[in-house]
Amino acid sequence: MAFSYQNYTGDNTTDTFAIPFTFTAQSEISVTVDGVAETGLTFPSAASVQLTSAPAIGTLVQVRRTTDLTARSVDFASGSVLTEEDLDNSNIQTFHAAQEAVDKSNDGITLGADDKWDAQSKIIKNVGTPTASTDGATKAYVDNVAGSASAAAASASAAATSATNAATSATNAATSETNAATSASTATTQATNAATSATNAATSATTAATEATNSTNSSTASANSATASANSATAAASSATDAQGSEDEAEEWATKTNGIVASTGYSSKAWATGGTGVTSQSGAGAAQEWATKASNSTVDGTELSSKAYAVGDMNRGSAGAHSAKDWATYVSGLNTVDGTHKSARAYAIDAANAVADFNQVYYGTYANDTDAETAHTNAGNTVAAGDLYFSTSTNAVRYYDGTSWTDIAAVNTSNFATAGFSIAMSIAL
Fold first, then answer.
1. Angle in degrees, 0-180, between the axes of helices 185-255 and 139-180, rounded to the nearest 10
2. pLDDT higher at 282 or 368
3. Does the predicted model carry a pTM greater than 0.85?
């Protein structure tokens, strides 16, 4: 874990990055994007830094602290008051400088436990041209040596061919001398020795040719490996391009609101909250419109939203569709919901008023007229003609005729003519 810097990966959206370590001045903070220093930094908070624009996708964004060591933060003087703040400031400068030194040491090429230098899988740049056999080599130097080896192999192969041809000529000459000087043993011996020397030279040339061929094969294999690596890199780049294209299309399917995606349909966001081709369109409409559009305008040219049908005020007083809220609670004088019927609340109020009106006429059950009138007037009412109450004394309903109370008696119909008799008398008459 680093003490004095933090790495981030650019996403083409984020332009503000957290500063997870302490610092004493904003001038100590620097930001690089792929190694290039950023300018125009601002600090929206005490623990964050903002760039002028969001770094591109995949770039390395590094936020680093560099302590000013050109002077000590505190210069102590003899006889001065030694304060906690001065001690802290002096120690903070030293502490921060030590952290930065540790980070630089950890990020450098270090000697591992196996006594080998470890570059931590990083590319080493700005390497000089080697002079000794044990020096590190640059890529350009290795490529040059490989080219020289190929040229040397070609020269060796040509030399081997020439040597072979010379050996063949020498062998032919030796054979001719042997046939011509059969009687001259000394000449024959010399010719034989010359042939043997030529054969040895041919063998040496053949060996050199074989070694040159092997060197050429190695160079060819290296070239093939380089070609294969280049092909792999090209394929990787193509795959990355395809992946980026898929990512972009996926993002459009998720968030695009200004038209169709991939010439086939609309994004999730467009169907959810609205967008070109979805909002207020016939046969369409966003989920948010279907849920919350509360005006009397339709969502798709035909139907209103759920909210409109629930709490809207469409078509009040006339036929047509009306909201559930109007049918439940709309009350405005004698107005109806649809021109014919009132709301449930209005009917309930009418029923309550009817009960109240009846209670003004029928007093209830009392023992006598005085008790009934007293209870009625104590309730703030006036005794009027046509009022009723049930008397427990007479066991009958009594009514007030404007002057006095009288029992409402049942009529005795026992002496009335029957229906048949009445009909017969009517016929007779």
1. 150
2. 368
3. no
End-to-end CA distance of the chain: 126
Judge whether 195 lies within some domain: yes
Tokens of 44: 């929206």
- Beta partners for residue 217, in sequence order: none
- State both tokens at 332: 């405005």
Domain range spanning residue 194?
139-250
Tokens of 316: 């009040």
Nearest to 5 by CA among 49, 39, 71: 49
Identify the three-state secondary structure at position 344.
helix
Q: 10: which residues sit within 8 A by CB, 6+ positions away?
A: 33, 54, 55, 56, 57, 58, 59, 60, 61
Residues 312 and 378 in one domain: no
- HEC string of 252-314? HHHHCCCCCECCCECCHHHHHHCCCCCCCCCCCCCHHHHHHCCCCCCCCCCCCCHHHHHHCCC
Exposure on the CB side of residue 315, measured as CA atoms within 13 A: 15
In a shared domain, residues 233 and 317: no
* Cα(342)–Cα(345) distance, integer angstroms: 8
Cβ contacts of 209 within 8 Å, gap of 6 or more: 156, 157, 160, 161, 164
Within this chain, do residues 235 and 154 fall inside the same structural domain, yes or no? Answer: yes
The conformation of residue 366, written as its DSSP 8-state character, comes to E
Q: What is the 3-state secondary structure (H, E, C) of 392-407?
A: CCCCEEEEECCCCEEE
> CB under 8 Å to 63, separation ≥6 — which residues?
5, 6, 8, 17, 18, 19, 29, 30, 31, 49
**SS3 per residue for 146-211:** HHHHHHHHHHHHHHHHHHHHHHHHHHHHHHHHHHHCCCCHHHHHHHHHHHHHHHHHHHHHHHHHHH
pLDDT in tens, 105-147: 888 887 888 888 887 778 888 888 888 878 777 787 777 777 7
* Distance set, CA 247 to CA 58, 128, 240, 244, 272 (Å): 13, 42, 10, 5, 21
What CA–CA distance (Å, rounded) separates 182 from 188? 7
Contact 10, 33 (CB under 8 A): yes
Q: Is residue 258 part of a domain?
A: no
